[in-house]
Amino acid sequence: SFRIQYYMHAASIEMEDHLEDHIRRLKMILGRLGLNYKDPRLGSYVITAIISDITGLEAEKNKSTVHKLSTQIEMKRLTGNPTKDITIPGFKTLKLPALPEAGAILAKAKERKPDLLLAKNAYEFAELDRDLASRLIYPNPRLFLYSGREEYTPAGIPFSGSEKESYLRIGLRFPLPIFDRSQANVKRAEADMQFQKALLNYINLNLENDIMLAHQKYKKYYDLALKLERSHSNSHIYMDQMADAFARGRITYFEFKSEHEKWHSLHKEHHDTVMNALEAYGELELAAGFRLEDAQ
Hints:
Strand order of the largest sheet: 1-2
Number of helices: 7
Number of domains: 3
Shape: rod-shaped
Distance between the termini: 21 Å
Strand content: 5-15%
Radius of gyration: 39 Å
Structural class: mainly alpha
């Protein structure tokens, strides 16, 4: 989705800056030590290791640059405007979307989800068919009206002229399911209604499970992203202090590199967590069937 590409593009820009900061720091150390520096314990290995680390970070930075360009192209494709550049604010200024309560999302999803609405309609029609088959409701009531003249007695003897009577009869006829009800049709309609009811319950339960699972997944990544962001927010200041301590000989290169890799790993983990959170957000929208901003 465009949202994912948008955040990935911002993350690539921020990762470029992060890697450039590490490269700058290592080059600063290299400049202070000089290419001929020999560590008392490790000799020239330290300079070789620093140069190797700079090369590795530059290669990683190039990958981020390529990724940044590819996400820019994809965003242009998604917007249908391949010539216009899309300006992205800094990754740190982008905030993950806040979530409505799961109950609010579920309630709105049940009002809109097409497969659930279709299942409800199918069940209601099946229930109506069952009622028709079992004559729990009475279709086609008939109004009747007719007249005549009594010509014969019940025994079949003709009436004399004065005995003949005219009559008018009017009424409403309902079919009663005492003798003419088809039990096979009733059972078939009942079975179909039960099937549609089970299908409706199945779809409803799946919807509830999908929404609750995606909601919990997003919340887990959301909370972790905030925690990681706080943990490395001032890492650049700390790493500058570590670089200075190494250049002054207070700590070894391995101690400095260990801290460098730890903070770099936290930085990457924060990016990955944000991306995972956005994927979970997309899964939640897909499960709900609408943009979550509409439920705010």
